[in-house]
Amino acid sequence: KFGLHFNKFIFLHWILFSYIIKNKKTTIYFSISDFKAFATKSDDISISTQEIELFLEYVLISKEDFKAKYVDIRKDKNTGEFISYERMTYLDRYLPRISYWHPLIKIKDKMMLVSYTSLLQFMKFDRLYSFIYHNNHIKDFKSKIHGHCVSDYIRNYAKNIVSKAKIYGDEEYYIGKDKVQAPDVIIEFDTYVLIIEAKSKPFDLVKALTDFDNYDFKKIETDRDKSVKNISRYLKHQNAFDGKKIYRFVCYFFEHPVMLSDMDDIYDLERIMITDVISIENLLSIKSKNHDVILEDFLESRKKHDTSALSHFCKSKYGNELDDNHDEFDDFIKSFCD
User: Fold this and answer.
1) DSSP label of 97
2) DSSP 3-state of 111
3) Fewer CB within 10 Å of terminal CB in the chain, N or C?
């Protein structure tokens, strides 16, 4: 797509980040030619001038294109009118920021940094991930590659942060002669069990927002019903976890808790909770209370018409504990800035 080997494409991201952070100047303007010279000096990998040019075509954006992209996701595709203030304030903070995908604007022979926050977000590769996720040329990516990666990530995260629990899932078992799959992630404690079905994105956020009245959200209902069926089958035929409280989840690799929580209601929450990876991370990171106590408090709050998503609930009640948890990316960023 971009004319670059994937390894070099990723490596150039880090070269760009290093160039800006190590610049030691309080400025938002950086010389394109200086960056090219900096990039070709790497001892770790050989990069040609042409490859740098191809990378810059991907990274840099003109002021005109930046403005056009900003306007595009804030207009209703059916009416051509800007989305109402009420809807925008409800959802806008979760929209893909244009600057998070395009942190550098090309102005003549310089690149202007929109903000350092935008640069850090860009380095989380969400734009690249989105391109891969929506690329129809990658066969079965969503169902056979992405879904397994999400469940593997949750299991590994749980193993690294949770003690005194059995962590497993996605094993094959038989019902008669029929071979079936166990739920993706099972985190079994002495008195309760978390059973998680991992899913990819429930919908395209930008398309959903700009065509909200006509957008089909039935994928969430389908995912929920399939997950309930798979978990129920496992409990019936493989392990009922007698005497233990069971909490069921549909977990999306999708950080948009407000819209996800708005898709369910309290009756479905009792049956299965619709949530995202960030929420599961936050829940598992809390040490001061057992997770079943936290989840019971969460369910009670929803009965009282508190519309907070699980991630927001955890942050509001246990923010100090969560603030103390830094992921590897944050630690890596700090090493550059020291």
Assistant:
1) P
2) strand
3) C
Pairwise CA distance, residues 278 & 319, whole Å: 14
Per residue in 18-65, pLDDT (tens digit) is: 888 877 666 788 999 999 998 888 777 788 889 999 999 988 999 999
The angle at the Cα of 124, spanning 160 to 183, to the nearest 5 degrees, equals: 45
H/E segment holding residue 205: helix 205-210
- The two structure tokens encoding residue 185: 């992630």
As given in the structure block, the two tokens for residue 262 are: 């708005």
Which tens digit of pLDDT belongs to each residue from 287-306? 999 999 999 999 888 877 66
Measure CA of the first residue to CA of the last residue in the chain; give whole Å: 36
3-state DSSP helix/strand/coil % of the chain, to nearest 5 = 55, 15, 30
In our burial notation (b when 16+ CB lie closer than 10 A, e otherwise), range 282-318 reads bbbbbeeeebbebbeebeeebeeeeebbbbbbbbebb
